[in-house]
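Write out a sequence, fold above all:
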Amino acid sequence: MSPKLLIPLFALAILLSACTTSVVTNEDRELPMPTELEGLRDSRSTFTGTLNEVLSDSLFAFVGSKGDIISHECKFNEFTTEVVFDNGMPVSLTASIAINSLETDTGKLTAHLLTDDFFSAETYETATFESTSIVMNKGEDFTVTGTLTIKDVSNEEVITMVINEEYVQASHTIDRTAYSIGGPTEGLKAVNAAIPLEIKVELQ
């Protein structure tokens, strides 16, 4: 191949490999500062009750990718979370996500993801998660087993979470094909089956 052809091809490869877009900011990911938590942990160490999300300071994001070339980091702007504590220990966690609150970097992509090709938002307005067990691993690290329902399809998910009376934090990957989201995983229009999730919910 001519060296003159290799140069633009190499430049194109670099461009494509860096094609990642996001609507998530560093501020979205910030956790409460340690100074904000001083005195709270001791006073709530035997806390029994229910805490809910502070939506303005919370994040539910996911990444959709086509191979290693194109990635879109998206988020839902409306969701509810309820964490029940008994004597300082989380015993129940439920969440509900408004699918139509989806935000991506382009209106065209948002509209496409809400169609029957992906989330079928007109038919299935919410996705839900309901814990069935919460087991402490160490300190504030817990294994949360629960039922995730998307598009009226329910599957068990086992998620490692950090849970305390101030926030819930987790990273988890789901298989979109298990929830009938999207099309083929192979071919020119293929979208990766693995969808990484990023969750940060501040509580009050």
Observations:
- Residues 20-202 form a domain with the Lipocalin fold (CATH 2.40.128.110).
- The chain has one domain: 20-202.
- Helices lie at 3-17, 26-29, 34-37, 40-43, 107-113.
